[in-house]
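Before the break, one more example. Copy the sequence into your notebook; we will annotate it together after we see the structure.
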Amino acid sequence: MMSKAEVKKIVEESIRPLRAALQLHDWQFVLVYDTSLGKDRAACTRDCQRHAATLTFNPAELEDEQDVLWTLLHELLHIYHAEFDLYLDSVKVPVPKQVFDAIEPSFHNACEHVVQKLERLLMLTFKTSPKKLIAAVRRREN
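Here is what the structure looks like once it is written out:
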């Protein structure tokens, strides 16, 4: 468990270079630190049309700097499938509520699996980590 101040410091120092590494320059982020997420480390809510997202971090579930950095990267990777949120929103109205309620969990589960695969791709195929991505961006800036 980490303090809110510790998590906030790591996130605020790291989000800009990670955004740059992931080419998310056109997205705006609101950062929230909240222990009401239960056992979840973090959550990402996206608004594709405004290119805005809220990243919520649960300090009670984060263990150390590496955990915070991988969690931040994970939540930023969710931005890549934000356009699919538009699809989900578009079927919400014409589809009966019972059908939508059956589809929505599968959609979110699929999104989570895609993000996990992207993480593995970065880690295993490209042999990188959040710290390496941050360092590479900072070297390019100097």
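The chain has one domain: 4-141. The mean pLDDT is 95. Try to locate both features in your own notes.
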